[in-house]
């Protein structure tokens, strides 16, 4: 049964729909929690790995103390892995002689190396605790949630029990579902709608840009006003090299609603961020969440959208990787047939 808190958030969405036609046009406001999604459920590891969440939380806390940027790094990995093809850790796979890596796509360039290594360190610690049937996908999901909570985001429960994919998703598939850096609002709405996310979800998940940095090439398509700001961020962020620019110029390390306020005064760093103001319904959420003093509505919708993304369907024919960056068993087609190698 849904919690009373979730019911309150749902009523908030209903009230907004009644008072604002733009809000009413959104497909849904809050995704109500369910007990099971496919083969995934809450507490699935409670018996076989009772310390899983403690292990993840401790490792994330240590990493965050040493490098606050790991929070946004985990979040980007989570979104870019889950949104195109479900949370199956396919993004983590490094290139091999059999396939290219999803990390080679332009949208996936510049993944946070510290966040990638943190996921593997957690995997090693979980294995040392004799927890073999825990996937890198579940670890990534838990690590992202805990890192966000430590930075001020709301807690949300996630279904666990998924497996890791045995190979990356196709470039065509990933490229179709990850928004391009020059995407316009109609493109963003279409891409999110194709994965079952409404306009409120789009704006809520974009709110994750309240933390972290963008690679400099991502700023190429930021044009318009205020001209002084666009000029300043581009001068501070040359297109070449590995330099990055903070996404929230007000409170870059805190998960709050300042990102939305920045957009309203033209201080959005990415062109896709500023596009949220170009549609009546998405602008409605930006304006209201910018003045959401207690963050209840924004936090509720963000948590629901993150949970919805975590529950996107995955291929059940996966495995539990020991090394998050390589499949457990690779079959190499040679002149003599298939040869198995670890």
TrEMBL record:
<protein>
    <recommendedName>
        <fullName>Peroxidase</fullName>
        <ecNumber>1.11.1.7</ecNumber>
    </recommendedName>
</protein>
<dbReference type="GO" id="GO:0006950">
    <property type="term" value="P:response to stress"/>
</dbReference>
<keyword id="KW-0325">Glycoprotein</keyword>
<feature type="disulfide bond">
    <location>
        <begin position="82"/>
        <end position="87"/>
    </location>
</feature>
<keyword id="KW-0479">Metal-binding</keyword>
<dbReference type="GO" id="GO:0006979">
    <property type="term" value="P:response to oxidative stress"/>
</dbReference>
<dbReference type="InterPro" id="IPR019793">
    <property type="entry name" value="Peroxidases_heam-ligand_BS"/>
</dbReference>
<keyword id="KW-0349">Heme</keyword>
<dbReference type="GO" id="GO:0005576">
    <property type="term" value="C:extracellular region"/>
</dbReference>
<feature type="binding site">
    <location>
        <position position="81"/>
    </location>
    <ligand>
        <name>Ca(2+) 1</name>
    </ligand>
</feature>
<feature type="signal peptide">
    <location>
        <begin position="1"/>
        <end position="26"/>
    </location>
</feature>
<keyword id="KW-1015">Disulfide bond</keyword>
<dbReference type="GO" id="GO:0020037">
    <property type="term" value="F:heme binding"/>
</dbReference>
<feature type="binding site">
    <location>
        <position position="251"/>
    </location>
    <ligand>
        <name>Ca(2+) 2</name>
    </ligand>
</feature>
<feature type="binding site">
    <location>
        <position position="210"/>
    </location>
    <ligand>
        <name>Ca(2+) 2</name>
    </ligand>
</feature>
<dbReference type="GO" id="GO:0046872">
    <property type="term" value="F:metal ion binding"/>
</dbReference>
<dbReference type="Pfam" id="PF00141">
    <property type="entry name" value="peroxidase"/>
</dbReference>
<keyword id="KW-0408">Iron</keyword>
<dbReference type="GO" id="GO:0140825">
    <property type="term" value="F:lactoperoxidase activity"/>
</dbReference>
<feature type="disulfide bond">
    <location>
        <begin position="216"/>
        <end position="237"/>
    </location>
</feature>
<keyword id="KW-0575">Peroxidase</keyword>
<dbReference type="InterPro" id="IPR010255">
    <property type="entry name" value="Haem_peroxidase_sf"/>
</dbReference>
<comment type="function">
    <text>Removal of H(2)O(2), oxidation of toxic reductants, biosynthesis and degradation of lignin, suberization, auxin catabolism, response to environmental stresses such as wounding, pathogen attack and oxidative stress.</text>
</comment>
<comment type="similarity">
    <text>Belongs to the peroxidase family. Ascorbate peroxidase subfamily.</text>
</comment>
<feature type="disulfide bond">
    <location>
        <begin position="136"/>
        <end position="324"/>
    </location>
</feature>
<keyword id="KW-0732">Signal</keyword>
<dbReference type="GO" id="GO:0009505">
    <property type="term" value="C:plant-type cell wall"/>
</dbReference>
<dbReference type="InterPro" id="IPR002016">
    <property type="entry name" value="Haem_peroxidase"/>
</dbReference>
<comment type="similarity">
    <text>Belongs to the peroxidase family. Classical plant (class III) peroxidase subfamily.</text>
</comment>
<keyword id="KW-0964">Secreted</keyword>
<keyword id="KW-0376">Hydrogen peroxide</keyword>
<dbReference type="GO" id="GO:0042744">
    <property type="term" value="P:hydrogen peroxide catabolic process"/>
</dbReference>
<feature type="binding site">
    <location>
        <position position="90"/>
    </location>
    <ligand>
        <name>Ca(2+) 1</name>
    </ligand>
</feature>
<feature type="site" description="Transition state stabilizer">
    <location>
        <position position="76"/>
    </location>
</feature>
<keyword id="KW-0106">Calcium</keyword>
<dbReference type="InterPro" id="IPR000823">
    <property type="entry name" value="Peroxidase_pln"/>
</dbReference>
<feature type="binding site">
    <location>
        <position position="248"/>
    </location>
    <ligand>
        <name>Ca(2+) 2</name>
    </ligand>
</feature>
<dbReference type="InterPro" id="IPR019794">
    <property type="entry name" value="Peroxidases_AS"/>
</dbReference>
<keyword id="KW-0873">Pyrrolidone carboxylic acid</keyword>
<dbReference type="InterPro" id="IPR033905">
    <property type="entry name" value="Secretory_peroxidase"/>
</dbReference>
<feature type="active site" description="Proton acceptor">
    <location>
        <position position="80"/>
    </location>
</feature>
<feature type="binding site" description="axial binding residue">
    <location>
        <position position="209"/>
    </location>
    <ligand>
        <name>heme b</name>
    </ligand>
</feature>
């Amino acid at each position: 049964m849904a919690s009373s808190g979730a019911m309150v958030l749902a009523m908030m969405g209903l009230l907004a729909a009644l008072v604002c036609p733009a809000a009413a046009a959104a497909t849904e406001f809050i995704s109500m929690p369910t007990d099971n999604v496919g083969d995934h459920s809450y507490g699935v590891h409670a018996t076989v790995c009772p310390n899983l969440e403690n292990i993840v939380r401790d490792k994330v806390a240590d990493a965050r103390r040493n490098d606050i940027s790991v929070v946004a790094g985990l979040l980007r990995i989570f979104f870019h892995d889950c949104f195109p093809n479900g949370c199956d850790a396919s993004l983590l796979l490094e290139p091999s002689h059999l396939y290219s890596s999803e990390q080679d796509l332009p949208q996936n360039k510049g993944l946070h190396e510290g966040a990638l290594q943190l996921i593997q360190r957690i995997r090693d610690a979980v294995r040392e605790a004799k927890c073999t049937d825990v996937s890198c996908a579940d670890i990534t999901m838990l690590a992202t949630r805990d890192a966000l909570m430590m930075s001020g985001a709301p807690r949300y429960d996630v279904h666990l029990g998924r497996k890791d994919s045995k190979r990356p998703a196709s470039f065509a598939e990933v490229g179709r579902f990850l928004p391009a850096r020059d995407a316009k609002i109609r493109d963003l709405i279409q891409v999110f709608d194709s994965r079952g996310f409404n306009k409120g979800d789009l704006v809520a998940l974009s709110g994750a840009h309240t933390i972290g940095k963008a690679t400099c090439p991502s700023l190429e398509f930021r044009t318009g006003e205020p001209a002084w700001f666009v000029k300043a961020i581009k001068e501070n962020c040359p297109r070449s090299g590995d330099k990055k620019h903070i996404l929230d110029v007000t409170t870059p390390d805190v998960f709050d609603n300042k990102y939305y306020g920045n957009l309203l005064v033209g201080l959005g760093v990415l062109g896709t961020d500023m596009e949220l103001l170009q549609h009546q319904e998405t602008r409605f959420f930006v304006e209201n969440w910018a003045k959401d003093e207690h963050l209840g509505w924004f936090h509720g919708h963000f948590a629901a959208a993150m949970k919805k993304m975590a529950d996107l369907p995955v291929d059940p024919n996966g495995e539990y990787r020991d090394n998050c960056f390589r499949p457990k068993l690779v079959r190499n087609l040679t002149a003599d047939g298939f040869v198995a190698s670890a």
